Amino acid sequence: MPASKVSVEADGVSDTTPDRPMSPAEVMRFRRIERLVIGTVSLGTLVLAYSVVSNLPGTNPALLPPPQAILATAMAKFSDGTLLTAVWASLSRILIGYTIGTALAILIGSLMGWFRYVEYVFDPIVECMRPVPPLAYIPLIILWIGIGEESRILVLVITSFVVCIVPTFSGMKQVPKVYVEAARTLGASEATIFYKVAIPFAVPFIFAGMRVGMAASWATLVAAELVAAQSGLGYMLQAGRRFFDTSLVMVGIFCIGVLAFIMDRIFRTIQVRMSRWEEVSK
Amino acid sequence: MSQANLDQTEAPSLIIQNIRQDFITLDGTELNVLDNINLGFREREFISFIGHSGCGKSTLLRIIAGLQTPTQGSILYKGKKIKGTSAARGMVFQQDAVFPWLTVRKNIEFGLKLKKLPRDKVRAQAEKWIALVGLGGWEDAYPKELSGGMRKRVDLARVYANTPDLMLMDEPFGALDQQTKSNMQTQLLRLWETAGSTVIFVTHDLEEAVFLSDRIVVLAPRPGRVKTIMDVSLSRPRREELRLSEEFLAEKRKLHELLKEDA
């Protein structure tokens, strides 16, 4: 039921009837349901429309494979292990590259935000790397170290590093002076202030950076695998194109979407938990 | 009155010697903020610094805390020259300094943990101060869930739990409403009676200074200097009713006159 409804009364005076007002919790709940229903209908319509069009006689199934064909491909690729091998190849690259890049970003970013001279040294480098899309490094990396596993991981290291270092750095720069001085007069050493005041304050910033970094890493990885890989989801897409297997391409796209979505949800959950203390959370 | 105000019966434990503080302003001119400050305070005294803005009262407090190095002069505590900050000189700021990422309990335990005390002692000490400031039941709450007055109590408990010899307070209740402020003042006096540390309290509120202090240091601006020191002749313990008594108003009037002269 909407928050208010318009009615025309018998005497012709039109106004909004002061129904029993909804509590904020009820409004929130109501909006959540609205959103879910409309969202489901919207997505369902899209799938249905595709299904109808792809099943029309005269549609080229090689270009618009019907949902049942896509599903069949997915089942086949799942049972022969191709799908899981591809997923694992991509995931393991992400785990290695992203972990190294993010760890470096947190380490260097937090030192940059805290120590003036570290900032002076690294800031120009970060500022030069930042505007360059990480994909642009791929040809250079291939020239330098070939198209092996290392080159794909290196692209991911660069991507997650560049994305995560900026919020980490800015979080550390924003630590209020009064917290630092309060810690100091409570007997904290400079090292203690760094890891018990500055880092905890910057945690929400760092997690925001990690979440964006994860999304960016996925994007970069798939692109890198399209260009140079013999395994992984990106490679699977490319193989699908080469063999004119549109179903396989669609299965690949779907898998990438689902994995990225799950990862983002995991990160969001951690992020919310770590930032629970913040004035405005969620 | 420029020389150290020494008490005859008891040697001062905190001596402020010849402090001068100059700052360079943005346009490059030199600004003399404090000049020739000489003061002496006894153990367990409750002192207020009062004066118009620009008299350098906060700067002087920061120098005593060790957060600011003076251009000239030194601070002696029990005969030893102080250098830098120390847990022995606790400070309560006007701004909210409670760490928002820690619960009430963890905030109060912050300084205690740094002292490497055994776990159960840290717990017990924190419990004691949580009870003393009346925050029982709120131990695991985050600061965002507390009111401004409650957060200030966390702040006070955090510094007091650290058992400093000297409590430095820079307009700690300046951001609170009148009612909360009065409550906090009464509560502060109780804590002070319990803990027995010397307090130096910076304020521009006459009533606050009279209600709390043994002695009030009146500072004059440009350059900041000691104008006079007023003894508050009101007996202790001081309770809320005192604020409306004739003797209280007389003291307040006296302080008002001292502040007004050539202001």
UniProtKB/TrEMBL annotation, chain B:
PROSITE patterns: ABC_TRANSPORTER_1, ABC_TRANSPORTER_2
Keyword Cytoplasm appears in the UniProt entry: no
Residues that span the membrane, as ranges: none
Keywords on record: ATP-binding, Nucleotide-binding, Transport
Family indicated by similarity: Belongs to the ABC transporter superfamily.
CDD domains linked to this entry: ABC_NrtD_SsuB_transporters
Molecular functions (GO terms): ATP binding
Gene3D superfamilies xrefs: P-loop containing nucleotide triphosphate hydrolases
Domain ABC transporter: 19-246
Protein name according to UniProt: ABC transporter ATP-binding protein
